[in-house]
Recover the amino acids of this structure.
C-alpha cells in the first residue's frame, strides 16, 4: 500500500526548501477524529494538484479563537504572538486552512500584531485550483443527489463568504438545495464562541438539533459543510435524530476529494 | 405678532428642555470609554446604503417596506416642519414657496407621505394589538415597553392627522394657496360647505397642533425607545466597518503580553505609575461611548433576539435585553457617576444584577443579531467584553471553558493532546 507523504515545514527548511503555502491544519483537523478525515482528504487534494505546501506539525498551536471568545484575551494574545513568531521563522506568506475560525483569526485579528498573510479558506482554494485547471472533477459523481449546504457563521456572516462553497457544490450535483435558513440568515450550529467546550445553558433544545431539523426538512441525502466545528455539531444532530442511514454529512473538501480525476 | 411671540416662547421652552436633555446625555457619555472613529468617506457610503436606503430593514420585506415608507416620509416631512418653524418665527406663511415649481413637488410629496405614514402607523398599531408577533415578547419586554411603543405610534398618528388637517383646511381657508396638495384636496372637497372663516380657524388649530406635537415628540424621544428617530442614522454612520468576525484588540492586555514575551523592553515600555484599568466590562463605566450609543439607539424591534440561536432554543440570552439593560443601568447609575466620579459604587453592576453570566455564556458569537440589526448595533462584541471581565478579573467561567483554557495554556490545544500528536493524522493517507 502506498501512502501520501505530508510535507512538514521544519523538514522542508532543513532541506533548504521554502514551500509556497502553509496548510494550517487547526486543532480539530489535528485531533478530532471526524475532522482528521477532512485533513486527510485535503492533503490528498493538495498532493494531486501538486501544490507546493507544508504543515507545521508539532510547531502548530491553537490560533487562539476559542480562548479569545471565551474571554481570555491574555492567553489569546500570547498564542497570537507565539504563532506569529513561528510563521515569521518559516517566512510564511500564504496560509490555507479549512477551519473558518482559524481563517477569521488569521485574516482579521492577527493583523493587529503585524501578522499580515494572504489567508485562503479551503473552499476558495479548491475553486482556485479547479479554475486554474490543476484539479479536474468527475462531475457525474453526485448527479441527482440532493445536497444541502450549511453556512458556517465564521465564513458567512463573519466574513461575507457565501459563494465559493455553492459554486463547488454545483460542480458535483445539479440538485443543490438551500436550507430554510441559509446564507446570511443561516442558523448557527451551536459550537462557536467556545460553546463546543462547555455544556449548553438551560433551555429547551440544543442548537444543533434545531439546525438539523432544517436539514431533515430539506429532504437532502447529503449535508455539506465547510467548517470542522459545524461538522462535529451536525454529526451529533444526525445521531440524535437517528438519521445516520438517511443523511450523511461531509466537508466540501471530502466531497471534492472523492471525485477528483486522477490522470 | 402675538402668534409670533407665543411661538417663539414655545420654541425657546422646547429648545431649553432639549438642551437640558442633551447636556445630561453628554455627561453620561463622558462616563464611558473611548472608541476611535475614522474613515469618514466609507462611513458616509455605509450610512447612505443602510440608513437612508434602509437595506437591512428590508430583510423582512413586508414590514421592511412599511418602515421604509415611514422613514422616507419623515425625511420629506421634515422639510415642511422646518418651514413651519421659520414661518412661526417670522410670521410668514409657507415661506419656502419662493422656490416655485419645486415647492409644489415637495409639498405634494409631503402631503402624500403624510397619508401613507398614517396608513402604515394604523397598520403597525393594528399589528401590535391583534397579531401575536413573537419578537415583541420576551422576558425583557414589560408592560411599560409596550406602552412606550403605543405612545410613539399614537404620537406619529396624531402628527399625520394634524398635518393632513392643516393642509385640508389651508385649502379652504381663503388664503392664497401655495404648493400642491393631492391628498388633502380630496379631503377638502368634503368640507367645501364650511365657510372660509371656520376653515381658517381649523387651519390655525391644526397648524398649532402639528407644531406642538413635533415639539413634544422631540422632547419625549430621548426618554423613549423611539430615540432611534434621532439616533439611527448617526448610529449607522458610527458603526464598525470591519468584518463582523473581527474582535477588537485590548490594548491594555497587549501591553502586558508584550512585557511577558519580551522582557528586555519591560523598562522602556512600562509607565508604571498608572493604575491598571479593569479588564473587560463589568458595569456601565467600562463600556465604550459607542456601546452606550447602541443602547440608546435600540428601538426594541427584537430582530436580533428573533434570530439568536440561544434564544430560539429556549435559553435566557436575548441580545435585545443586553441593549435595554445597558440603557437602564446607565439611567440608574449615571447620575451617581457624574456626581461622585468613577469610583462611585452602588453595590450593583450591569453584570449579575442586570445581565447574568448565564446569559453571557450562552452566546455562540454567530453574529446573527449584529447582522440583523437594522441600525448596525453590535451585541456580540459587548458580550465578549463581559466574558473578558469574568475570565480575567474574576477567573469565573463554566468548567468546560476553564478546562479548554488550561489545555491551551499547557499544550496549545483546547484538549489534552500533546503537540507531537498533531502529526498522527498524516499517517496512512491512501493514494
Amino acid at each position: 500500500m502506498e501512502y501520501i507523504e505530508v510535507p512538514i515545514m521544519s523538514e522542508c527548511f532543513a532541506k533548504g526548501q521554502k514551500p509556497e503555502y502553509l496548510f494550517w491544519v487547526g486543532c480539530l483537523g489535528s485531533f478530532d477524529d471526524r475532522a482528521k478525515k477532512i485533513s486527510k482528504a485535503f492533503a490528498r487534494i493538495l498532493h494531486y494538484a501538486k501544490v507546493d505546501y507544508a504543515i507545521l506539525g508539532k510547531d502548530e498551536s491553537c490560533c487562539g479563537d476559542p480562548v479569545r471568545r471565551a474571554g481570555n484575551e491574555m492567553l489569546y494574545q500570547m498564542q497570537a504572538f507565539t504563532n506569529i513568531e513561528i510563521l515569521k521563522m518559516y517566512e510564511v506568506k500564504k496560509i490555507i486552512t479549512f477551519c473558518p475560525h482559524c481563517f477569521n483569526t488569521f485574516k482579521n485579528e492577527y493583523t493587529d500584531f503585524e501578522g499580515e498573510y494572504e489567508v485562503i479558506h479551503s473552499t476558495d482554494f479548491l475553486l482556485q485550483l479547479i479554475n486554474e485547471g490543476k484539479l479536474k472533477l468527475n462531475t457525474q459523481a453526485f448527479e441527482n443527489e440532493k445536497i444541502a449546504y450549511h453556512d458556517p457563521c465564521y465564513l458567512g456572516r463573519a466574513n461575507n463568504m457565501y459563494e465559493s462553497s455553492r459554486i463547488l457544490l454545483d460542480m458535483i450535483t445539479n440538485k443543490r438545495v438551500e436550507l430554510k435558513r441559509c446564507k446570511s440568515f443561516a442558523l448557527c450550529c451551536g459550537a462557536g464562541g467556545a460553546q463546543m467546550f462547555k455544556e449548553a445553558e438551560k433551555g429547551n433544545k440544543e442548537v444543533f438539533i434545531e439546525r438539523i431539523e432544517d436539514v431533515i426538512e430539506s429532504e437532502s441525502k447529503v449535508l455539506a459543510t465547510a467548517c470542522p466545528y459545524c461538522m462535529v455539531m451536525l454529526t451529533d444532530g444526525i445521531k440524535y435524530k437517528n438519521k445516520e442511514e438517511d443523511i450523511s454529512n461531509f466537508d466540501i473538501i471530502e466531497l471534492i476529494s472523492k471525485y477528483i480525476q486522477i490522470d | 405678532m402675538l402668534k409670533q411671540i407665543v411661538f417663539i416662547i414655545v420654541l425657546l421652552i422646547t429648545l431649553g428642555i432639549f438642551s437640558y436633555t442633551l447636556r445630561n446625555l453628554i455627561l453620561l457619555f463622558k462616563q464611558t470609554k473611548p472608541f476611535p472613529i475614522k474613515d469618514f468617506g466609507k462611513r458616509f457610503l455605509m450610512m447612505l446604503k443602510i440608513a437612508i436606503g434602509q437595506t437591512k430593514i428590508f430583510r423582512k420585506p413586508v414590514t421592511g417596506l412599511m418602515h421604509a415608507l415611514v422613514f422616507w416620509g419623515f425625511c420629506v416631512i421634515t422639510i415642511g416642519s422646518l418651514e413651519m418653524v421659520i414661518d412661526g418665527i417670522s410670521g410668514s406663511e409657507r415661506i419656502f414657496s419662493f422656490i416655485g415649481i419645486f415647492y409644489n413637488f415637495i409639498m405634494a410629496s409631503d402631503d402624500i407621505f403624510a397619508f401613507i405614514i398614517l396608513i402604515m402607523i394604523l397598520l403597525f398599531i393594528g399589528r401590535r394589538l391583534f397579531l401575536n408577533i413573537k419578537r415583541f415578547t420576551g422576558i425583557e419586554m414589560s408592560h411599560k415597553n409596550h406602552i412606550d411603543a403605543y405612545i410613539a405610534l399614537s404620537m406619529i398618528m396624531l402628527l399625520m392627522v394634524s398635518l393632513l388637517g392643516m393642509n385640508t383646511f389651508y385649502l379652504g381657508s381663503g388664503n392664497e394657496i401655495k404648493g400642491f396638495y393631492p391628498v388633502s384636496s380630496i379631503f377638502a372637497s368634503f368640507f367645501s360647505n364650511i365657510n372660509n372663516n371656520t376653515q381658517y380657524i381649523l387651519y390655525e388649530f391644526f397648524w398649532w397642533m402639528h407644531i406642538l406635537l413635533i415639539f413634544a415628540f422631540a422632547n419625549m424621544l430621548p426618554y423613549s425607545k423611539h430615540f432611534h428617530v434621532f439616533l439611527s442614522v448617526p448610529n449607522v454612520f458610527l458603526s464598525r466597518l470591519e468584518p463582523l468576525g473581527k474582535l477588537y484588540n485590548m490594548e491594555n492586555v497587549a501591553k502586558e503580553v508584550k512585557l511577558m514575551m519580551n522582557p528586555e523592553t519591560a523598562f522602556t515600555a512600562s509607565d508604571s505609575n498608572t493604575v491598571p484599568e479593569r479588564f473587560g466590562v463589568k458595569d456601565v463605566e467600562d463600556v465604550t461611548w459607542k456601546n452606550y450609543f447602541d443602547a440608546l439607539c435600540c428601538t426594541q424591534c427584537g430582530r436580533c433576539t428573533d434570530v439568536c440561536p440561544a434564544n430560539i432554543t429556549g435559553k435566557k440570552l436575548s441580545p435585545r435585553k443586553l441593549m435595554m439593560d445597558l440603557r437602564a443601568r446607565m439611567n440608574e447609575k449615571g447620575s451617581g457617576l457624574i456626581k461622585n466620579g468613577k469610583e462611585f459604587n452602588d453595590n450593583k453592576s450591569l453584570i449579575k444584577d442586570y445581565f447574568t453570566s448565564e446569559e453571557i455564556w450562552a452566546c455562540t458569537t454567530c453574529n446573527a443579531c449584529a447582522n440583523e440589526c437594522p441600525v448596525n448595533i453590535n451585541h456580540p462584541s459587548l458580550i465578549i467584553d463581559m466574558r473578558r471581565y469574568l475570565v480575567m478579573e474574576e477567573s469565573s467561567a463554566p468548567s468546560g471553558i476553564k478546562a479548554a483554557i488550561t489545555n491551551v495554556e499547557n499544550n496549545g490545544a483546547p484538549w489534552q493532546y500533546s503537540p507531537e500528536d498533531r502529526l498522527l493524522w498524516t499517517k496512512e493517507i491512501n493514494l
In short: Chain B has a mean pLDDT of 94. Chain B has two domains: 2-229, 251-411.
